[in-house]
Design brief:
By secondary structure, the protein is α/β, with parallel strands linked by helices. The protein has one domain: Dihydrofolate Reductase, subunit A. The chain is about 25% helix and about 30% strand. α1 packs parallel to α3.
Length: about 190
């Protein structure tokens, strides 16, 4: 049986995954609410393996090991760190304090194809844009989960979430509105 691979990514309405340093947006573009945070925590209630590229993993590990009081972190972030993680990287040699991380060097497509065949739990990747663009192109992403925050960041936005992806048809599998303003859309991508 092949494990389902979900690429989970946050975005502004105009498609940016982050913003320039110094922009006064705040986390979640200051649009988080209790429904969003509860839903995110529930997503990480079940066993799964996280898959990261080096850049996203470094950012996540730095946040988690920065001395922030764990009670100040959102529950879904805390749950993420307790899950096993595979980090696809040719530059990292250290797991940066992540409790159950494995660094694997090599071709991301080969690594994730093997993980999909061998894993008995679903696979989930957060952000990791260039990694997931390659996996999309190879047909390895089963579900594209995009959480769209109600902001436009045309002046301060960085990291277009689909800027390096090819052309895809998207079949809508699920949609929901969280806190009356944030959209979560889950698609099955098919390469065109």
């Amino acid at each position: 049986m092949t494990a389902v691979y979900t690429w989970d990514v946050f975005s502004t309405l105009d498609g940016y995954g982050s913003f320039v340093e110094g922009a006064d947006w705040g986390g979640y573009w200051s649009k988080q609410g209790p429904e969003l945070l509860d839903h995110r925590a529930a997503l990480f209630d079940t066993e799964q393996r996280m898959v990261y590229g080096a850049t996203t993993f470094r950012e996540m590990a730095q946040t988690m090991s920065s001395g922030i009081d764990p009670n100040a972190l959102d529950e879904w972030n805390v749950r993420t760190t307790s899950m096993p993680a595979t980090v696809v990287s040719s530059t990292l040699v250290d797991t940066l304090g992540w409790p159950d991380a494995t660094i694997v060097s090599g071709d991301a497509v080969d690594i994730v194809a093997r993980l999909k065949e061998e894993s008995d739990v679903p696979l989930r990747s957060q952000a990791s844009l260039s990694l997931n663009w390659a996996l999309l192109a190879a047909g390895l992403v089963d579900r594209l989960q995009v959480t769209i925050f109600p902001v436009i960041s045309g002046r301060t936005g960085t990291s277009p979430i689909l800027g390096g992806a090819g052309d895809f048809d998207l079949e809508l599998l699920e949609s929901r509105t969280l806190d009356g303003r944030t959209q979560e859309l889950v698609y099955r991508p098919t390469l065109r």
